């Protein structure tokens, strides 16, 4: 394997309703494993982390982030791919840095190759639906900064 870890980002996508409640966009994964997650992805060659965040939000929701509403957090980590994922990859896992991005209400267009469904949920529902500990921690960090 060329590089042990692919460089990537986690993006917690959220919207704020008129009554100031925060809802998070969760995506139902169908490629490599099944379960709920938030947006994430690899940094492509020549791309900055901020460009990756904007691209991933657009690719996985169909909506551009609100201008000035992307935030970077002091949370980094890495994880290993499982055996179903690693066979399609050039590396053993992915590193990540955490971001959040606000989007406006609109019709969500998911990437049908990776996801089968989406849901807008509050923090308490989202934390229960997320499968991985690193994503639960990331959601907690973002939520604490927004409330």
Would you kindly provide a brief summary of this structure?
This protein is of the alpha+beta class and 147 residues long. 26% of the residues lie in helices and 37% in strands. The protein has helices at residues 49-61, 83-86, 123-129, 133-146, and strands at residues 5-16, 22-29, 35-37, 39-42, 70-80, 93-102, 115-121.
Tell me the structural class.
alpha+beta
Q: Point out poorly predicted stretches.
A: none
The oligomeric status of these chains comes to single chain
Q: What's the helical proportion of residues?
A: 25-40%
Overall mean pLDDT stands at 88
* CA-based shape: globular
Query: How large a portion of the residues is in β-strands, by DSSP E?
Result: 35-45%
**For the CA atoms, what is the radius of gyration?**
15 Å
Give the count of structural domains. 1
Largest beta sheet, briefly? 7 strands, mixed
CATH class: Alpha Beta
CATH-defined superfamily? Nucleoside Triphosphate Pyrophosphohydrolase
User: What is the count of helical runs?
Assistant: 4
Q: How does CATH name the architecture?
A: Alpha-Beta Complex
The ordered string of helix (H) and strand (E) elements is EEEEHEHEEHH
Q: What is the terminal separation in angstroms?
A: 42 Å
CATH topology: Nucleoside Triphosphate Pyrophosphohydrolase
* Strand tally: 7
Describe the structure.
- 26% of the residues lie in helices and 37% in strands.
- By secondary structure, the chain is an alpha+beta fold.
- The model has no long low-confidence stretch (mean pLDDT 88).
- The protein has helices at 49-61, 83-86, 123-129, 133-146; strands at 5-16, 22-29, 35-37, 39-42, 70-80, 93-102, 115-121.
């Amino acid at each position: 394997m060329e590089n042990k870890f692919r460089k990537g980002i986690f993006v917690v996508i959220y919207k704020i309703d008129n009554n100031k409640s925060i809802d998070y966009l969760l995506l139902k994964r169908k490629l490599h494993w099944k379960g709920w997650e938030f947006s994430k992805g690899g940094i492509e060659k020549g791309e900055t982390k901020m460009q990756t965040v904007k691209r991933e939000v657009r690719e996985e929701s169909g909506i551009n982030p609100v201008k000035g509403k992307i935030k970077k957090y002091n949370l980094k980590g890495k994880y290993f791919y499982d055996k179903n994922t690693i066979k399609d990859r050039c590396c053993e896992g992915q590193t990540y840095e955490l971001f959040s991005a606000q989007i406006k209400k609109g019709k969500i267009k998911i990437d049908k190759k990776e996801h089968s469904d989406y849901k807008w949920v509050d923090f308490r529902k989202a934390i229960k639906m997320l499968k991985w500990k690193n994503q639960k921690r990331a959601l907690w960090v973002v939520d604490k900064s927004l409330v």
